[in-house]
Amino acid sequence: MLGETSAKEKFISTIEKFIALAAVRLSDDVMARLEEMRGREDTPLQKAIYDSYFENLQMARNLNRPCCQDTGLLQFYVKAGTTFPHLDITREVITEAVRRATKSVPLRPNAVNYFDEKNTGDNTGERTPWIDWEIVPASSEMEITLYFSGAGCSLPGQARVFKPSDGLEAIIPFVFNAITGSGINACPPLLVGIGLGHNIENAAVLSKKACVRLLGTKHPHPKGAELEKRITDGLNSLGMGAQGLCGNQAVMGVHIESSARHTATIACAVNVSCYTMRRGIISFKSDLSYELPTYRGASL
Ligand code: SF4
Questions:
Q1: Predicted pLDDT of residue 1
Q2: Model confidence pLDDT, tens digit, residues 59-116
Q3: What's the pTM value of the predicted model, to 2 decimals?
Q4: 68 lines ligand 1 (CB under 6 A)
Q5: I need a surface site. Which of 8, 61, 157, 240 has the fewest CB within 10 A?
Q6: For the chain, what is the radius of gyration of the CA atoms?
Q7: Which atom of ligand 1 has the smallest separation from the CA of 70?
């Protein structure tokens, strides 16, 4: 049994190392999807872009450096068991791990507090790192999904509330305009996250949860899954290609997360992740032993 101080130190150090892993190496599902996509491109230019992507990703691993210079701001999606014994210190631990990882990895300092207009220098700041909490009843474990939110893939984000008379179909041109507008600058192929909710803020939160969902998963409702496929096929038929330089594919996938809507609203938000989709998962047991389900063979 670890003492309180050594447990806290172990928790911080494990998350710091997990941040380092996720900055350098893409999750297995993302790598597998990029490999599939490389095989489906047939022009020399598209093949060269994918080859440079894979060379960059391999060099990052060889040199143990982040795979993109924009390491973004870090977002944590925490599924917290109600009896996880370190719940009280989790926010403090994550914040300190980000502070240390900014130096040790290193990560580019990106956090600027509004109204100070000064970079804090350590990727922490007002409500930063951003932490989203979900409570898991009767569990003593904690699962943390980490996402590096870069600027290029945050800029295309949009949200809008439609009237029901516009119909659910109204979200399709809205999503296509977002992707063919600034989405093209976000280092395609993209993972597109769509949130459908009852107002702008729950749609926006759901759109990022859609982004961090594992590739290969589908919306649980058959109509939701069908809409994901239709939008994926439609975006891939535009000829956008990797880096927006003409190819057979634009997106790694389209994920939709939804909540019930108000009778009189259809709220939609769209968010994207770039090809260096740095999203990783770590799950802790109550004794702080951990598993890394998205990184086969890795240890910290
Ligand atoms: S869009 Fe992604 S890959 Fe491109 S510069 Fe930004 S973080 Fe890096």
A1: 59
A2: 999 999 999 999 999 999 999 999 999 999 999 999 999 999 999 999 999 999 999 9
A3: 0.96
A4: yes
A5: 61
A6: 19
A7: 7
